[in-house]
Every structure is written in C-alpha cells, then in structure tokens.
C-alpha cells in the first residue's frame, strides 16, 4: 500500500438539487456554506465517526451518512484497515441544501485522497449514494454529483451506473433562505404523484433541455424562462410557508428564477447580478420576518470545484 | 406596400421530430429530401394551391397544410390580396419526416420573403402550426421549428408563444429509411398513454438534458447514450415492422443511435462518420428486403439553414 498522507481535511459544499425543472437530475454546488471534515487512516478496523457539533447525528457507521458511504468504499478497498472521520457540520441537517450529501461526498473524497486518488469520480458518486440511502431511503445522486464535481451537474441516468454530465455554467449569484420549519425528504417524496400527465412531462423536459442549453450557451434570459416546474413545485410548495411571496418578490427584484432547493424547506433564487441577489436576500428576510419564522439567508455563488481537499 | 419581389421559390426541407427522447420538443432538418415551392402574389383574393404531383393532396386552402398556414398569415397581413402556391413535393406524405411541416413552413417563409421579411421566425412558426393542425389535429411545432430555423431545434414551450432554442450541433450523418407502410399521426398519438410513471419521466428528462448537452458540447458518445426513449418508443415501435432489427443492426454497425422519426413509419439513425452512415443504410436495406417491404433510404446530413429562399 502506498498512501499519499495519513490525514486529510475536506471542505464539503452545500448543494442545490432539482433546480426547479430538473427533479432528480440537476444540481449545483454552493460556495457557502460548507462542512469541514478530517479523515485519518487508523489501525483500528472499521469506520469511526466523531461529530464536532450539536446536531445529534448518529455515530453508528451504518446509520451515519458519511459512515455508510465509507463502508461501501471500504468494501472496494479491502486493504484499508480503518478510517476515522471527524465532522464539523456547518450545513444544517434538514435544510434541503444537501447536508447529508456533503457528509457522504466529503467522506469518500477524503478517503480517496488518502488512497492516492485511485477511484474515479463516478465511482465516488456511487459510494456516496449509500450515504444518501441512509438519509432519505433513496440512493439519489442529485446532491452528491455537484458536491463531488462542483459546478452544475446533470445526471443523465443512475442505472446501470451514474452517468454524470458536468455543465459549464456562466457566473450566477445564488441566494438561499432556510426557514426554520421541518420538511422531511421522505415526506416530500411521498406526497408526489407517481403518475404524471404526459403533457406536463413534455413541458418539463422542454424546460430541462432549455435550462441545459441556457447554461451552456450562457443565455441568462433562457435560463430564466426555463426555471419553470409544472410537476413537483405545485405539490411541494404547499409545504413551505412564504414560498409564493419569496418567488414573486424575487422575480419582481430581477431574479432569473428559482424555487425549492431539493425537497425544501430552503428556497433558492438565481441572479445574473450581485445587486439583484442582495435585493432577493432582502425579499427573503422581509417575507419570513412578516411570517414570524426564524430563518438563515445565504448569499453566495456557485462552487466550481466541489469538495476541496486540504492535505495536512 | 413595398414587396421585394412578386414571385419566389422555396426549398423546404424534410425534418426529423422527437429525436428519440425529445418527444414534442426536439427536431432537426435534413439536407435531403426537400420540397420545391413557388409562391406568387396575385390580384385574385385569397389563397390558391396548385399541386405539381400525384399525391392527391387537397387543394381547398383550409384543408391544405400550406393553405391553412397561409390563411393564418394573411389574417396578420390584411393588405395582401392573394397568394398562389405551386407545390412540387419530394417528401412523401405520411413518411414521418415532416412532409406537412415542409409545406407549411415553406409557404410562410416564401410569403414572408415576398413581404420583405417583416415577420420574425417565431411568428412564422406560429402561422405554420396552423398547417400542422390540418395534417394531424395538433398544432405541434417540432417539425415546423427545424424546417424554419434549420439545424437542431428545441421547443422549450409552445404556450403562450413558441419558445424555440436553436442548438449548435456538431456534424452528424443521418440515415433514414421509409418503409412503405402507413402509420397515421393521429393513430400514433392516440395509442400513447396520457399518464406516465414519474420515474420514467425523470429518466426521459435526464436524457433530454443530456442530449442537449451532448449536441452543444459536441460530445458524440454522450449523444449516443442520451438517444434512449423509455416512454414513446416502447409503444410506437410495435407499429413498425423491422424496428428492432434496424436499431440493433445500426448499433452494431457503429451508429450513435436513433429511432422513430416523428410518429413513423420512417426510422432514422445518427452517425459520427459517413462510412458508418453507409453501413447503416445497408442494414436498413437488408432488413426490409428480408421483410419483403418496399422502402426508400435517404443518406444525408443536417440542413443548417432551414427553408431556403431563391428569388426569381
């Protein structure tokens, strides 16, 4: 075995999945917030989780998202005896901006760095998806992929193996509000209809195609028009107080568009200009101040690199 | 009124709609075959259709696709007294490669040239959609848009107005086979299920996004992987004898992929190299020779300009 280092620090970014029309296929990484993770190879067998925060997340590896992802990875790297992970979470669990994906992605990127980078990014996505399964019961990759690749990613398909397409997007300012209400991913998935009208599906894939084209052609107006969701948003937005006020106010302030981040409750808005993103942040604060709900606002940009490895 | 010329000739291309995963939203224009149309402003009021072929198409303007499109256009240009159209069709009606769209698109592009180009391309698409309504009962634009714009087009949405996104595709060789069987567009639409499983819809919009990305990034392998249709093809391919043989044989010959053109019966295959496109043509001929069905094969490329206007 030749390991490049014995310990490593990883900054694992928050992510926005779905991106309005791209349910289960689109996502992007945020410059802020991010988790900080420290990984260390150990002589003690297995995976060891240490949480450096008060979120009360499980530390039993099979029930911890980082742990489950690392256990999957260790099955493919049987020469590794053990790995210890210390997690300092800044991405609040249940916020809808990829808290579990950051832990899972950061863990596998970190261990891969300790192993000299032997696994490919698609392989890392597959390992990390085991972490998402622990978090939500579904091995989805729409937060995992941007957390690992950075930027905006499209998941063409997840079977037989994840087929991930990085999309070279233009500069975008992102404003995120996390209202302090609970929306469980499993509940948010359960309320979705399992059959959709063909006409709505056509509208949706027209928008997905157009959003991809708008991103790749750096056509901001097209990005704005394509940020339309006729299938998921009408159902899920009911779970999020202030949704329509934030959306309408953000559009009025000049935002390109936006909607629910992942399965919520966070909402995100994309803007071409920083001043617009600031005005959107004000709209978000005003909305939740009036509703008397506590909230966090993040005004940030797209993280282009994904999980960042700092060798110690 | 200042008209740039009194008569005009238009070459109106055949088109492939749907493009496997992009049902109702994607299409591209073919370099061959194309219709030839001659338009003339007349003092005699209204629209006059002259068919220069034996296809027995209606000449009553409201029942003729070119006529219906021109009638819609004349409502927006009330100063025009009349227009005469002589149509020499080379695109066989019922072939599934946009025969009706070529007539409708060619007619409105021709009249627009006679009017000095006053209408925009999105407006022309709207007029031409009235022709498609005559042909199939549905005002769809997935053949019309590429016939007018050329190249590969994405229709983000058709309401409130057509939102058409031209996609700059890499060079592609196209092989088309038109087996001599009848598949009516109206029948092909009727057999589709009006509700689709959400999981299938997600797979489809992942593929649509990936196909757009593959085209814009000139990534041939990605184009190939994205040419997958889990919703329409499983239903419609049953109507087309030889479908699976052509598809499997073409893949074996090295084609990127392909499927049903529009609602069929024509099948198309895309190839990166001309030699592959020739091998695909052989697969198509062999398949229908064995089945004892007459057929036409077109080996061509993508038309980048759409309807071409030749002033007389």
TrEMBL record, chains A, B:
Gene3D superfamilies: 3.30.230.10, GHMP kinase, C-terminal domain. GO terms for molecular function: ATP binding; homoserine kinase activity. Residues 212-289 form the GHMP kinase C-terminal domain. GO terms for cellular component: cytoplasm. It is found in: Cytoplasm. The keyword Coiled coil does not apply. It catalyses: L-homoserine + ATP = O-phospho-L-homoserine + ADP + H(+). It comes from the Bacteria. It is an enzyme of class 2 (transferase). Its EC number is 2.7.1.39. Pathway: Amino-acid biosynthesis; L-threonine biosynthesis; L-threonine from L-aspartate: step 4/5. Keywords: Amino-acid biosynthesis, ATP-binding, Cytoplasm, Kinase, Nucleotide-binding, Threonine biosynthesis, Transferase. Pfam families: GHMP_kinases_C (PF08544), GHMP_kinases_N (PF00288). Residues 66-151 form the GHMP kinase N-terminal domain. SUPFAM superfamilies: GHMP Kinase, C-terminal domain (SSF55060), Ribosomal protein S5 domain 2-like (SSF54211). NCBIfam families: PRK01212.1-4, thrB. Catalyzes the ATP-dependent phosphorylation of L-homoserine to L-homoserine phosphate. Belongs to the GHMP kinase family. Homoserine kinase subfamily. This is Homoserine kinase. It comes from Hymenobacter rubripertinctus. The gene is thrB.
